[in-house]
Write a structure and sequence with these properties.
alpha+beta, Butyryl-CoA Dehydrogenase, subunit A, domain 3, 50% helix, rod-shaped
Length: 232
């Protein structure tokens, strides 16, 4: 049996989104801080969930592990860390369940298991979207010890948003497996009656194209003699 297209899309989109959220969680580029009064004009601080890097573009020098207790102790950063870690774990579990459910190496996939994998993937992608959306919504309120005047969204947050959307879309595709499972459990009952000819085929000569019209006409009974014929 061919694997349904929705399952194939789910298997392709889910790992792609997982790679993006993995890059998002480790990259120090959720927020870019520029316009720092005490630094060079071209100096930019890339702030992530785990570290902060200083990028001096004129000399092409990147140094990380900068300390900023006010930034890392902010509540949104701590919650975003927890949500992203939970998203990684849940999404990995969803991909594993989906792979076992689809079973491309067998003739018949497990539709209920694939649907469960879709539910898990939707939850995992939603966790990433919540973390990224909350961070970007509070972008201006998160402490900025460098006193930069230009705060912009970094590429890591964009990758996280795209990755979360891909995982949610993959889960939605796999949710259609539940409908396929219901169809396989309750097939439509149809009764087929074979068409049988009204008369056996060997009864008629082969040369007659319409034997019923020629042979099976009602036979006319012979005329009965009138009562007075015997007296003549």
């Amino acid at each position: 049996m061919r694997t349904p297209v929705v399952m194939i899309l789910g298997l392709v989109l889910a790992p792609s989104g997982y790679v993006l959220i993995l890059t998002c969680i480790v990259a120090p580029a959720w927020r870019d801080v520029a316009g720092i009064p005490t630094a060079a004009v071209d100096e930019i601080h890339h702030q992530g969930l785990w570290e902060i890097c200083k990028d001096e573009q004129s000399v092409r020098e990147l140094s990380c592990n900068l300390n900023d207790d006010a930034y890392f102790n902010y509540r949104v950063i701590a919650i975003a860390r927890g949500l992203m870690i939970a998203s990684m774990v849940v999404s990995a579990a969803g991909i594993l369940v989906t792979t076992v459910g689809v079973r491309c190496w067998t003739d018949e996939p497990s539709y209920p298991l694939s649907g469960v994998g879709g539910v898990i993937l939707v939850a995992g992608g939603a966790l990433t979207l919540i973390a990224v959306s909350w961070y970007t919504d509070r972008l201006q309120q998160i402490p900025n010890s460098a006193a930069g005047t230009r705060l912009t969204v970094g590429y890591a947050a964009v990758l996280g948003f795209v990755g979360g959307c891909l995982i949610v879309i993959a889960g939605i595709h796999l949710l259609f497996s539940f409908g396929k499972s219901c169809e396989s459990k309750t097939p439509a009952e149809k009764k087929y009656y074979p068409k049988s000819s009204a008369y056996p085929a060997g009864r008629y000569p082969a040369g007659l194209s319409n034997p019923v019209a020629v042979i099976d006409l009602p036979q006319r009974s012979p005329p009965t003699p009138t009562p007075w014929d015997a007296d003549l």
